[in-house]
Amino acid sequence: MKTKYQVIADEIRSKILSNEFVVGKVIPPELQLQKDYGVSRHTVREAIALLVNEGFLRKEKGSGTYVDDSYQRRGDGVSSSKTIGVITTYLSDYIFPSIIRGIEQKLRENGYSLLLASTNNDVDQERACLEQMLSQGVSGLIVEPTKSNQYNPNLAYYLSFKERGIPVVMINAYYEELSVPFICVNDTKAGYLATKHLFEQGHQHLALITKIDDLQGKYRMKGFIKAHEEMRTNFDPKNVYTYTTETKAQVFETLREKLAREQEVTGIVCYNDEVAQGLIQALAAMGKRVPEDYSVIGNDDSFLSTAGSVKLTTLSHPKEELGEAAAEWIMLAVQQEMTGNKIFEPELIIRDSVKRITN
C-alpha cells in the first residue's frame, strides 16, 4: 500500500505528464498543497522531494518549486533516442501477438528497442501506460486506443506527446476527437462484405452482434446497415445486439432467448471470430447447428476461425503486416518524415459456416 506522500507524488506527476502542470511553471505552494490533500507540511515536502529526485520538479530558493523535464533525459537506463513505446489493449490474446510480432521485428531490424504495455481496454490502465511512456522518454508511440467509441479522459496525454514532439500513430482504431494518424482496416467494408455475402446466399433476415465501446464495432455496424440499404431491405433494430468489454458474456444469453422465440433470423454477422465461436457454442447449447440452422460470419481471420468444429467464413485482417506498417510509420516520423493514414481493405474468406438458402 502506498504512503500518503507517494499518492500525492503520483497525482502531481500525472498533472505534469498530462500538461495540467506545465514545464517551467511554478506549482502551487506547499501550504496550498497541504490544504488540497489534507496532509501535513512534512508529507507534502516528502512528495516534492521524491519528484525532484525523479526529475519532474526543481526547487529554486526564494522562488518556489517548478515543473522540470529532466526526467525525459534520464529514462532509467532506456535509450530515448531509439526506443519506441507500444501500447495495445491486450498482449497475448486473439490477433495481438501477430500484430506485436510485426512491430517488434521491423523495429529490431532497424536498431530500435520496444517498450511494451497493455491496457486491458481500461482507461485507468491506459493512463498508467501513457505516463510510463512519457516518463521513459520514448521517441515515438504506437498505440491501440482504449474504448475508442467512448469519451476518453486521457486525451490530454496524447496532446502532451504532441507538445513534446513525440510522434504518435494509432492502430486498429483512433480517437475521433484527436487529429492523430492511424493505420486501420476498413471496418465499414468488413461489415458490408459480411452482410452482402449472407444476402447473396439467400438470407433475408439477419442479425448483428457488435462491440459498441470500440470504434471498430461502430464501423462494422455501419457496413451492416449499408448493405441493407443497398439491398433496399429494412433491418429490424431489435436484431442488432451490442455489448461492451464488460458485458460480452450477457449478449449470448440475450440472443439465445430471442432466437428461441423468433424463427425469422437465419444469418448472423459477428463482431469478430471470438464472438462467432462463442455464438456457435451458445447455439449448440440450444440444439442448433451452424450452418444447418444458422449461418454465422466472423471477422479478423484469426486462429479461432479454423480452431472449432466449424471453419468460419470471415474477413481478412493483415495483423503482422499492419504491425510492420505501424513500425515503418513511426520510424519515419522519428526522422521527421511524416506520412498519412493507411487503410487496409478486407477480403471475404469463405469457409463452412454459411449455408446457401434456395427458395
UniProtKB/TrEMBL annotation:
Pfam families attached to this UniProt entry: GntR (PF00392), Peripla_BP_3 (PF13377)
Stated name of the protein: GntR family transcriptional regulator, arabinose operon transcriptional repressor
PANTHER family per the UniProt record, alphabetical: ARABINOSE METABOLISM TRANSCRIPTIONAL REPRESSOR, LACI-RELATED TRANSCRIPTIONAL REPRESSOR
SUPFAM superfamilies linked: Periplasmic binding protein-like I, Winged helix' DNA-binding domain
SMART domains: HTH_GNTR (SM00345)
Single GO molecular function: transcription cis-regulatory region binding
Top-rank taxon, per record: Bacteria
Keywords: DNA-binding, Transcription, Transcription regulation
Start and end residues of each HTH gntR-type domain: 2-70
